[in-house]
Design brief:
Two copies of one chain form a homodimer. Chain A is α/β, with parallel strands linked by helices and about 350 residues long. Chain A has a single domain (about 10-345), classed as NAD(P)-binding Rossmann-like Domain (Rossmann fold), CATH 3.40.50. Helix content of chain A is about 35%, strand content about 15%. Chain A is built from eleven helices and 14 strands. In chain A, the strands form four sheets. In chain A, strands 3-2-1-4-5-6-11 form a seven-stranded parallel β-sheet, sandwiched between helices. In chain A, helix 7 packs parallel to helix 9. The longest helix of chain A has 22 residues, at about 110-130. The radius of gyration of chain A is 19 Å and the shape is globular. At the A-B interface, helix 5 and helix 6 of A face helix 5 and helix 6 of B. Chains A, B: It catalyses: UDP-alpha-D-glucose = UDP-alpha-D-galactose; UDP-N-acetyl-alpha-D-glucosamine = UDP-N-acetyl-alpha-D-galactosamine. Chains A, B: Its EC number is 5.1.3.2.
């Protein structure tokens, strides 16, 4: 993926200390980009010294390259203004967000503030500085209840979204579309992630949830490592082969490479583009558990409990537009996802705080 | 409408110097409420002295009552916090917003910032102060393209909204619904306005657009008074009786009384309620022009031009839920709307700046 011509192109990555952000930065550095990372440590572990977060220290070690880091909150417009005065960015990858679905229903104002107001602040600062290339970390949750499968980018959005987190992603997509329509000098890429899992194959960086995991695979991994007692499987009576929910899991390294691939289209003006980032196929909860047991050699105790409100039976995407336009598709399979996740979890049973 | 039991109940009205806000305050004062009004003067005329805006000076004169005013911007969280420390509000009527459809497409970030972030700031400040009764000035624009007529409150929302202004209203509705679901101690009323027109029957307060009017009737009135040369009628080939667009126009005094009526349901806990505020019937552009000519005795020169993107043929609401639950319905007819608008426009050809 590396292209020496990208060298010296400076990319701002927000939420850079987090799960997706840190994996993106690793791939960006490997591809020859320079990176400024910012994070407010809402979801990421800060370093004791208050300088480089642990995840990015490890990214530097893995890549043998340096990245610049600032603790910046998207709600602090003055900090953002300073950031754009200090650096001249080629483009922005905006990963910063609160992302826990359940929590978003409990404290919606915090989610709307962080994710919507935060993005507006970032866009205003970028606009004022003339930085008009923008990649947004969106989510397949904007599609709501699937009306057909696989879900392509033309699928309706914004209808039947069951939680405030998903609504913040949809609102930001609408804001970005209106912004681009109002000012055609913007180039904006919306990446709709399916379900990111796994970790870098080194097992040195990975997903490090603060508190009980919200997503299936970190939960599975924490059960396997003995940090949690038992997995709850929400519903086994869905209309799927084994009755459990089916989702499109995408290896986070593939996802990160999708961001690097996306940046290449900034060489020409295009306006606004939307890409699904997923594998194009679904696995059930029990298939994921079984694959993880095989990869880890650990049993994963689980219990079937009733369905959870807002969950759909089956969801997977059509990633063919990304393949056609970005030359990107997933390279890693289910075994890779499980093996790399287990490597991260077993080497770092308590996440980044394990290594210190 | 007055109820002595309401005396001493203090209502915060945001956007209080504006068109709907000032008419609401007049009716609130007449009904015995106390009022604190705030405005940032984005759409309203500030007084030379920097104290009470001209619209509210006239409201005080008309009602022979006082209201308290502060210049506060919804984007200034510190000002909002001070406001809630200074006063103990019974409830909030949130009218403050940028509201020009065309402008919203040109400067969407400003619209999202003012209308969405501004409302989030207000809700956070109110929540922190324990003020959990909230009335939101929404708009029938959230219904998008009508799927049936008349539009009742169960009509789908959020699909086919053609401009950022309308999207900000829909986003705030979603935020309010999520907030109420997360904390059942909130009581929230969403009022979906159809097309407010006219003015107080005294002609002393009215709609005072800064720059060319965005809406039909202020434009008609400014043509009649000689301030504008000619009305443009966008499309005469719609599937309507005379080919021009049909809308549900509601007299602003009826609309304001709808707010006072709505406050009565705060006596009991109800969660979240949504009400259409409209007359339940539509008039075409040419019917409105003709009625205005009759009421004013002035000719209104107009020219038919092509349709405008995003306009629908016909839109009118079903206000029967508001009648049933709030005991409110429109009392004023088309002649009242035109006569009162003309009184305002002819007495104040340049709006509030005429009187100074």
């Amino acid at each position: 993926m590396a292209a020496s011509g990208d060298h010296g192109r400076l990319v701002l990555v927000t939420g850079g200390a987090g799960y997706v952000g840190s994996h993106c930065i690793l791939e960006l550095l490997n591809a020859g980009f320079d990176v400024v990372a910012v994070d407010n440590f809402a979801n990421a572990m800060a370093d004791d010294t208050g300088k480089l977060p642990e995840s990015l220290k490890r990214v530097e070690a893995l890549t043998d390259k340096k990245c610049t880091f600032y603790q910046v909150d998207m709600l602090d417009a003055a900090q953002l203004k300073n950031l754009f005065q200090k650096h001249s960015f080629f483009c922005i990858i905006h990963c910063a967000a609160l992302k826990a679905v359940g929590e978003s229903a409990a404290i919606p104002l915090a989610y709307y503030k962080n994710n919507v107001t935060g993005t507006l602040n970032l866009l205003e600062a970028a606009n004022a500085a003339g930085v008009k290339r923008f990649v947004f970390s969106s989510s397949a949750t904007v599609y709501g209840t699937p009306q057909y499968l696989p879900i392509d980018e033309k699928h309706p959005v914004g209808v039947g979204i069951t939680n405030p987190y998903g609504r913040t992603k949809h609102m930001v997509e609408e804001i970005l579309q209106d912004l681009q329509k109002s000012d055609d000098t913007w180039d904006i890429i919306i990446l709709r992630y399916f379900n990111p899992v796994g970790s870098h194959e080194s097992g040195r960086i990975g997903e490090d949830p603060q508190g009980p995991p919200n997503n299936l695979m970190p939960f599975v991994a924490q059960v396997a490592v003995g940090r949690l007692a038992e997995l709850k499987v929400f519903g086994s009576d869905y209309d799927t082969p084994d009755g459990t929910g089916v989702r499109d899991y995408v290896h986070v390294v593939d996802l990160a490479k999708g961001h690097v691939a996306a940046l290449k289209i900034f060489d020409k003006h295009f306006g606004l583009k939307i890409y699904n980032l997923g594998t194009g196929r679904g696995y059930s909860v029990l298939e994921m558990v079984s694959a993880f047991e095989k990869a880890s050699g650990q049993p994963v105790k689980y219990q079937i409990v009733p369905r959870r409100g807002g969950d759909v039976a089956t969801c997977y995407g059509d990633p063919s537009v990304a393949e056609k336009e970005l030359g990107w598709k997933c390279q890693k399979n289910l075994d890779d996802m499980c093996r790399d996740l287990w490597r991260w979890q077993s080497q770092n049973p308590k996440g980044f705080s394990s290594g210190k």
